[in-house]
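Task: sequence in, structure out. Protein: GNAT family N-acetyltransferase.
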Amino acid sequence: MEIRPATDKDLDVFVDTLHAAFGRFPETPAEGGGGLWWSALEIDRSLLALAADGRPVGTAGAYSFELTLPGEVIVPAAGVTHVGVLPSHRRQGVLSALMRQQLAELRARGEFLSVLLASEAPIYGRFGYGPATYTQRLTVPRHQAAFALPRAHGTAGGPTAERDTGSVELLRRAECGEILEDVYDRYRRAQPGALSRPHRWWTLGAGQPPVSPAPRHVAVHRDADGIPDGYASYSVDTGTLTVDETIATDDAAFTALARFVLGHDLVTEVVFKHLPPDHPLRWQLADFRAGQVSDDTDWLWVRLLDVPAALTARGWFTDGELVLDVDDPFLGEHSRYLLTVREGKADCVPTDREPDLSMDVSDLASVYLGGTAPSTLVRAAHIRAHHPGAAALADSLFRTDRTPHCLHWF
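Result:
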């Protein structure tokens, strides 16, 4: 078997092989082009696996994204995608060979982390990826959509719905592409766990709504000065209003958009497809049980390729020291690091001190963005704590000021 970089001449072969791996056929481009989920493919970051007779049997690719880390730090991130192996060649080492080659190439490019969305949860842990952000669906019956009266007024936590002096305008998806792109970009720069949506994605209509040109209604929130600061992309079908995503740069804009869709006539329920697990919307409803949670699942998986570079890149909110013993069995590496955090910055250096925690690199990836508490993985027997206070210390160090969340589909 041979693993080699794909070229422009391989585009059709790559796309055909990828679709065949998932039992699908490539779609026909819409009039004017664009709108295909794979249309933003970066062929120069893609790999082909070839059988001994030269036939393509597997694919792997990567997108060039930016990822927002805790502390509003923005770093490059490879978005691993288009991974597939033909059914005739599965369980023969093809996927492992593709993953090994891809990780080597990412390191050669100087990238210290990669991310992906896992089609099946058991697949990628063995390659060093760990789930790092989570999302859930919230369904609210229209007849139970009343909001509670806010009990806190003038709090320091930011504007409340009662103080919202903005407005909501209803547009069609085709009318507001630039607004969506601008609002999302401002949102993702402040939201840990969020990925960039490069301009070419919007231009090509790559991905899922509202990036794709699929018909959607878009409720756009504008602040008191008329500047767009939030949107909700939605569709209505047989009495269900489904919100693809609600993007807002502050809580007041989100609340205004939630009130708008929850007040929609001629629907029986409103479904918010992607909310972080700790989102306050359920608490804002007069009937707490009205918000029915489902599809509570992982979303963004992270892989650390350079542990010191990754740990020193993110922002920190508590001072302290930890010795981390990190095993990376897929790459055959094992290292021990002293992590020292002072005034929001970290130093991470090799050490021979006794460890506070021992962990797989995939578990370090899961706690990296602050979406998974180290103590949870200690209790799950994934991470070994070497003394009673180690888990609590790690929880304090890795905590963030905002729950990481990712909405982007790739």
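Confidence is low (pLDDT under 50) at residues 157-161.
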